[in-house]
């Protein structure tokens, strides 16, 4: 099938997807059964800059998403803004269909740790859309530990208090995705390869880009979670950064948007984790009285987690208390684990083995303390008008709720960073640096 014919077929397929016409999609699919033509058409970007899977995910059409994935559509196909179908589904605001789309894409190995050119992950977009189902599904794919804690709430001109929150410790994003001076892709990869060769010649191998097996530098390709060392052939993994998020709960259900987020830099020198003072009898009358006023916590085991900016010298942090010493130790070990907190390349087999541990052990990855999100089935098929509006927003680069939860500095990216002492989400990760 020629390039012009393939482009025409891709346009027709996207139009059928936008109408929500599964029968038309199936009929069109019969026309590109030739070897190699299916992926060309399914993953081709239309004049609107979107692939068919982008349109189906943005329209929350779970049936069409499953149909396209069964035809081997690429779950990680990217548009011109580095958005994947998972990004589109996460901000669709069409529960429970959008949540079902997110779960289907995750089962087909969509990467929840990939960021767009504006630095937004799928979880950032789901939080901005206030879709609790999508947030829980995405956190379920990234969580290291979650559970109830008492969080310290410093308040301006008000006595600081402790309040019960839902804490989630999770993997956040990969540094080979997101904003870049040069658009990410083949050109950027070639530039990084040349940069690595020059740096190695002038100053020797870079520690953060060195293979742990042969100690030679590698240029990290864009968008991949792992790649092969070009010197010794070892499979290397690109670690993600870590994040702590605190949620208010209503009727034991965490909200969709966190009240505080602490994104940790991938540099152990910038992170400080200290135990909090556990003095005072937990059951004493005085502590009980203060706890009733919110001035003290009944949970005896505490941690203070802070992240420093070596360039600006600033510091942000969270202080939380746990019910048991085991919970406190699990969070501490997850944050200090050298395979999870580093920016350096790590062996893929060791990284995968760490994440696949069936039982939490000391100095190893803890299991979450809550069950994964329930698998949802679509209940309502979105109206064609709503689907078309969602696709139009996507093509125009708009996001639902853009006026609310936007960074107060750049007025473009979602606000994901909290400022102490008020604790309000008002800055994006880039403007906070």
Automatic annotation (TrEMBL):
ANK repeats lie at residues 48-80. It comes from the Eukaryota. The keyword Repeat applies. Keywords: ANK repeat, Repeat. The gene is XBOS34. It holds the Pfam family Ank_2. It comes from Symbiodinium pilosum. This is XBOS34 protein.
